Amino acid sequence: MPRPSQEGLRPRPVEEEEAVETVGRPRPDRIKLGGEVELDDGEKWKVPYWQEQPKQDILALHEDGPLSSAWCVGYLQKRAGRSRFRWTIRYFELKEGHLKWWRPAFTDQIMQPRPPKVLKREPRPKPVRDLDLRELKSVTRAKVRFPYSTRIILQFKEGYTDYQLELRSESEQEILAWYKIIIRFTMERIETVVDREGPRVHGDRDSDTDAAPDRI
Fold first, then answer.
1. pLDDT tens, 112-150?
2. Nearest residue to 198 via CA among 99, 84, 60
3. 157 Cβ contact partners less than 8 Å away, ≥ 6 residues apart
């Protein structure tokens, strides 16, 4: 039996191997991710969608939409300084990752939920405070059995501000709607349960005398 020549055993050059098309498989230049390609024998083959790179605008989808479009407005009660019992009514706006509030007139507080007249001025007045929620460190949900059921406490990163904001509402549904939005800005969530009104956890440098109006 004749032996094969050494030339027949010589490996083919790379360019020759690339030039050979495997029968029944599509050529790479014919592949369109997420679509269909036609094989040499006429059979159609669906390309898996997982081969396509995910788009940035669909990563980490949320049922309420992207975080940049989170929006909420309304009247809430905030603790006044370090007072154990005193709360003030303010009109809050959460927009584009910033939490702002204004001091409404007494008549506006009575006419809730209508927005305060102060926001209708041109130019729009500067808010009492403007907090960047991207600097939010933690959110604490305190379930108080009396007199209000839920309060939320916002603490920010040390390098941003030492201000601590505590909020509540006469409507449980309303404060939970705010809580649902705010917790999206931080990974640290704390839940506590207290029986009655008590002292603050620990807070800002505000006094109970309202000496600094921009702090309330």
1. 888 888 888 888 889 999 999 999 999 999 988 766 678
2. 84
3. 135, 136, 137
Q: Taking a C-beta distance cutoff of 8 angstroms, is the pair 96, 89 a contact?
A: no
Let me know if 42 is exposed, middle or buried by CB neighbors in 10 A (0-12, 13-18, 19+): exposed
Strands 164-168, 36-38: pairing kind: unpaired
Please state the domain count of the chain: 2
Assess whether 106 and 151 both reside in one domain: yes
Is 171:120 a contact under the CB 8 Å cutoff?
A: no
Task: Write out the two tokens for 155.
Answer: 């603490």
Residue 22 has pLDDT above 50, yes or no: no
State the Cα–Cα distance between residues 138 and 117, nearest whole angstrom.
Answer: 33
> Residue 124 belongs to a domain with what CATH number?
2.30.29.30
3-class secondary structure per residue, the chain: CCCCCHHHHCCCCHHHHHHCCCCCCCCHHHCCCCCEEECCCCCEEECCHHHCCCCHHHCCCCCCCCHHHCEEEEEEEEECCCCCCCEEEEEEEEECCEEEEECCCHHHHHCCCCCCHHHHCCCCCCCCEEEEHHHEEEEEEEEECCCCCEEEEEEECCCCCCCEEEEECCCHHHHHHHHHHHHHHCCCEEEEEECCCCCCCCCCCCCCCCCCHHHC
Q: For residue 59, is it within any domain?
A: no
β-bridge mates for residue 135, sequence order: none
- Do 33 and 113 sit in the same domain of this protein? no
